[in-house]
Amino acid sequence: MITVGIVGCGGHANTHAATIRDSSFAVLAACADIDPVRAEQFARTYGIANSYGSLKDMATGHKLDLLIIVAFPTVHPVLIREAIEYGIRHILCEKPLALNSEQARQIMELAESSGTLVVEGLMYRSHPQIARAKALLASGAIGDIRYIHAQFSDYASDNPGNWRNNRSQGGGSMTAKGCYLVDACNLFSGSRAKAAFCIESTNPDINVEVGETGTILYENGVTAQFETNHRSVWREEIKVCGTKGTLLIPHLIVTKTQKREIVLEMDGAYESRPMRSETFSFDVMSSYGLQLDNLYCCITEGAAPHFPVKDSVANYIVTDALMRSVASGKLEPVHWGD
């Protein structure tokens, strides 16, 4: 049994608490929030024995095997650093891990020097459809990859209490949704990004961007385009196009209770070559539960995380180029620092 603590008791913390409650190998021993009353209420809801008003107090009072950080993005780097200083050696930090590549590099270097496992909460990586999709692409199922298109959108509210609508808390559609798409494009491209272009839509009433349209060019010739939007119908899909066919994942990211599938579509360009399709289905399983399973194996068996922190750093390097492009209106090079 592993002992888990949560810092940040807002809305999304409920997902993690419920996931721990439903597991057979983890106990949620403590929670902390800058609002002690909210921490107390959260503790009562989930039957947590102890609640605190700070990470320091929680870390002092408990030996935690795993800390889950579910706070505002702007304080994620600070909380990670504090947790490591308090001796916590396994940390799951909700996305975004950082606000730029420099912060992400610093987190990775601190994690490596202290022997700490830090994982960013892109839980979709733990679903078996991702490993299967990678294997299909590696086998040449759709030929050579040429183009990727990804979309993640939903009709979010203008609630000022939601960090996604507050720039000072690290909000915006890039940090809330674009982080998944940049990662998926990097993951499936099979190469390193060399340049990026991005435009964004901003809601002037809340002074935060509500949508991005981005293009990433890769060293192997693959082009990826993605769209995020907080004012659109819910979509979370990716399409990888190759010289022989297309791999489509209709539900890429958020899965708790729905089935997942991968669809291969082959040919179809001409009447003489009708489209052929093949579907790979997956049973209902929670990506959050699978993420926790992987972390348990990391803690108890020394397993590798499904989403290593070096991949987070790579994503933020690409995101930096995308954000520079928003400011310049031009295609920007991706600076890898080597």
Summarize the structure.
This protein is α/β, with parallel strands linked by helices and 338 residues long. It is 34% helix and 30% strand.
Describe the overall structure.
The protein is an alpha/beta fold and 338 residues long. The chain folds into two domains: 2-120, 3-Layer(aba) Sandwich (Rossmann fold); 124-285 and 315-333, Dihydrodipicolinate Reductase, domain 2 (2-Layer Sandwich), CATH 3.30.360. It is built from nine helices and 15 strands. The protein has helices at residues 13-22, 36-46, 55-61, 76-85, 101-114, 128-138, 173-189, 287-301, 309-328; strands at residues 2-7, 26-32, 50-52, 66-69, 90-93, 117-120, 145-155, 193-203, 208-218, 223-229, 231-242, 245-249, 260-266, 276-282, 332-333. Strands 14-13-12-11-7-10-9-8-15 form a nine-stranded mixed sheet. Strands 3-2-1-4-5-6 form a six-stranded parallel sheet, with helices on both faces. Strand 8 (193-203) and strand 9 form a beta hairpin. The radius of gyration is 20 Å and the shape is globular. The protein starts with a strand and ends in a 5-residue tail after the last strand. The model has no long low-confidence stretch (mean pLDDT 93).
